[in-house]
């Protein structure tokens, strides 16, 4: 009898341990292929061309109001303008990456684009195994087992010097805070996330130096590369709770670098009343209109444009594996307009930000990040 | 498929069996754990750190009846004092164990509180930002809310003999339907009412497969979770995404301050400035605690979970009881799902419950299948989760990846170390066939 009891407990424990893994694996077995109607043809306005560009999302999916969505929009634009064929495959977990890419390889894609740092390994492996297919990877370069950078002949990294734009956002935040405290947090501690936070912290530091102020940055210390992270890009309640914590500490401007989890922070800011949010990746004033009253500005990464350009190069037979690096200078990254805050931002601050932007573009001001490329 | 008739070994610790074997060996586990922990923290937080630094705790929020001034203490001496109290508790535990006396739950509670206070004093030492105690506790309750509902759902089902692994799916379905209905009606309360319905629908599937077709309940539960993830993600990507204004912008449940109580410092902002879902949680925990152990309904439910054959013999309809309880459990979990959307004021997002249903299962076990215990366990998990957040904000020397592990480390430590042997309802997971 007792033995039966023990066995039951063991089964129970094992089941417990297996559940999370099973749930993930089971999600992975059914990748949802987003092939909207007409995706195999072309839009009526442009002539169809025989070029198949394919895309794999990160676990966030193509509706994340963040980098996956930006990437998908770039591909959609290429389909509409250039008449190419597109195939978009969503991943729901990191176990989906390799099967999804293999699936696209077998569909004879001409170009396969992986969206996000997390796909680096899977894309690199696939690029090495399929030398005749061109690959591109958003947000990460390729590296070997010892983390030394490597160049692939058929793998193009699409990189962004995001710190330049988030530097400007940090400067604006420091100039606009009423409490003297601003905050930033990430979803996971990845280079493509912390690069935002580095620039933000530097922007605040620059403002402090210029104006002999002491605006404090909560959630990130550039020197030690330590700060606040919610742990994933799914659970918005965590972002909401973390943002509440920042607000408790007196922060009144928050930049969440956590994809959809950032929307949780926006909800907390809205509830608090006098807290503003700086959006990332897209202009949140446009992409998250329910929060447009509290979006001070956004750090825009033109992932869509870089995808579009890569597809166009491939179509024209000009694909190279030379990395694309988005900068303020080439418009690959930018800071969004202030929209509803336009009248509240002092003219002097606007001028200063414009000057800084010029200085970064002409190279007289260097904004660095250990995560930059 | 035999029914357990002999009392399981766990009962050896019962006082009733102690009387028959007075020389049962003394369990030294608790005093040893207390002693080692107290010594470790005494050295790590008290002796080793440099002196001369101060720790500030703040307690008040703007709405309090009277303000408690921030407390600023010298970190080193405060940590030493606190860990000395912990050592004293360990000694007390040693003595009482030796005398074979049982002490109430206040001892582990006191030990936990002084140890956590010592940890906080050490972690915040020398920081310019104070530690907001009220915010720390309020955030803990916030994060614990879905866990409480989830673990209550689990225990309602398991007490009657059905293993409910589908809590995660029920939470997610509740979150989804609350968002949709709340948006369509533009009324958060209607969304709140809709949430349990979604939970019940998932529970009905669980009932269909586990009672009607006697499929392994753990497997059905896991599959149901995946099913709900798939269905809600599909609807999210297709319908909700394009028409967010029509389908997915739920209003937020209003915060209702309870007069007078809400103005009590610390307790007021934490407990009595909440939305209706949190007040419902208090009610559900209290009602279930009484009903489960003090009512005919509760007795029948427990008998069905422990010994269905005996229950059947005295005329209790076993499967009907199980069906009703599983539906009720689904409703409770679905209600908890409303936390993620209408209560938090968030739009629905794919897989937004983020595994809380599984942590709720752990809370149920840690709470030993009682509502009171489930509440305490959920609060413990909520606290450890939020502690990690608050320390991250103030700035700690610990890397973020390690910090993010804390809630799970606490879960493992609590389930394995503190609970030790638990006894699940004897007949859970076994379909009843006449």
Describe the structure.
With 373 residues, chain A is an alpha/beta fold. Chain A has 2 domains: 29-160, Rossmann fold, CATH 3.40.50; 162-301 and 343-362, Rossmann fold. Helix content of chain A is 42%, strand content 17%. Chain A is built from 11 helices and 15 strands. Chain A has helices spanning 2-28, 67-82, 97-106, 120-129, 162-176, 191-211, 236-248, 261-272, 284-287, 303-315, 347-362; strands spanning 33-34, 52-56, 85-89, 111-115, 134-138, 155-160, 181-186, 216-218, 220-221, 226-227, 253-257, 276-281, 295-301, 324-326, 333-335. In chain A, the strands form 3 sheets. Chain A has a 7-stranded mixed β-sheet, with helices on both faces. In chain A, strands 8-7-11-12-13-15 form a 6-stranded mixed β-sheet, with helices on both faces. A two-stranded antiparallel sheet of chain A has the order 9-10. In chain A, helix 2 (67-82) links the parallel strand 2 (52-56) and strand 3. In chain A, helix 5 crosses helix 6 (191-211), helix 5 (162-176) packs antiparallel against helix 11 (347-362) and helix 7 (236-248) packs across helix 8 (261-272). Mean pLDDT of chain A is 86; it is low at 1-5 and 20-43. By secondary structure, chain B is mainly α. Chain B folds into 2 domains: 29-128, no CATH class; 135-419, ABC transporter involved in vitamin B12 uptake, BtuC, CATH 1.10.3470. Chain B contains 17 helices and 5 strands. Chain B has helices at residues 15-20, 29-47, 75-98, 106-123, 133-159, 167-185, 188-212, 217-242, 244-247, 267-271, 276-294, 296-306, 308-313, 318-337, 356-366, 371-394, 400-419, and strands at 54-58, 71-74, 131-132, 255-257, 273-275. In chain B, the strands form 2 sheets. Chain B has a 3-stranded mixed β-sheet with strand order 2-1-3. In chain B, strands 4-5 form a two-stranded antiparallel ribbon. In chain B, helix 3 (75-98) runs antiparallel to helix 4, helix 6 (167-185) crosses helix 14 (318-337) and helix 15 (356-366) packs across helix 16. The longest helix of chain B is centred in the middle third of the chain and has 27 residues, at 133-159. Chain B is globular and about 65 Å long.
